[in-house]
Amino acid sequence: MLAIIGGSGLSTLPEVSFSHKQIVRTPYGLPVAPLYFGRMGTQEIVFLPRHGTNHVWAPHEINYRANIWAMREAGADSVVAVTAVLSLHGHIAPGSLMVPHDIIDYTHGRAHTFFEGQEQPVVHTDFSHPYDAALRREIIRLARKTGLEIGEKGVYACTQGPRWPTAAEAARYARDGGDVVGMTAMPEAVLARELGLPYVHVCGVLAQAPNVAGARNGADERRDNSRRTIAHIRQLLAALDETESV
Predict the structure, then answer these.
(1) Mean pLDDT lowest among 37-41, 59-63, 95-99, 221-225
(2) How many C-beta atoms surround the C-beta of residue 148 within 10 A?
(3) Is there a contact between 229 and 124 (Cβ–Cβ < 8 Å)?
(4) What integer pLDDT is reported at residue 244 of this predicted model?
């Protein structure tokens, strides 16, 4: 079963025929919302809105451990996470999609592992390549097949949020090697790795960050680009039922 984590803007999936919802209790408390179960074509899915049903949980407040644990307990065997980002470079256009291949983590104070406490040993998770290679290839293949513009490689700079970065901060992230900046990649990605869940990000570029010359990232531009990227993401997700490898 495929798990889809919806980010800002993707609070519903009209393409999915939902059958029921379930509150899943975990050792780490409740997830941010009930899990929604259904089918997208022939693909069985479980859907979770990352910021809660009414979009009330800020990035640093999300119970990432409960979210990922609940999806594994519900029977998910892979995760496609949708998130909104800003572009750190002029060539990454607003309204486009990206499937990043790496992450830089700038967050702090988030519960970022399942392996803690004196009742269990420390585990040093290999996170050299944070995203699942096979799942990334499948997403890219489907994007090409459906004619969508998608960045096939990039580094996700994950900040604490909930604010967007200053121009100086964005310039720093770009110098560090970041290509897009968002707020929710971590610890979501590493928690999925700890539970053995293949995980990939599909990023919708809302605007260019303030370090980019001539960037237009006002509320109107972000709203228009959000509509475009969400439409593209829904088109991409709808194609997932065409493959047996996800």
Answers:
(1) 221-225
(2) 16
(3) no
(4) 46
DSSP state of 42: T
**Extended beta strands in the chain, E state:** 2-6, 17-22, 35-40, 43-49, 78-87, 97-98, 102-105, 150-151, 155-158, 180-182, 199-208
* The residue type at 115: F
Which residue, chain included where needed, has tokens 């949708």?
82
CATH code at 2-242:
3.40.50.1580
Question: What is the rounded average pLDDT for all residues in the chain?
Answer: 88
* pLDDT, tens only, 208-242: 999 998 777 667 777 777 777 877 887 887 777 65
Where along the chain do its domains lie? 2-242
3-state secondary structure of 48: strand
Give every CB contact of residue 32 below 8 A, 6+ residues apart in sequence.
Answer: 48, 49, 50, 51, 52, 57, 62, 63, 66, 67
pLDDT at 75 over 70: yes
Radius of gyration of the chain (CA): 17
Confidence (pLDDT) at 245:
44
- Region for 172 from its dihedrals, namely left if φ exceeds 0, alpha if ψ lies in -120 to 50, beta otherwise: alpha
Rounded CA-CA distance 185/5 in Å is: 11
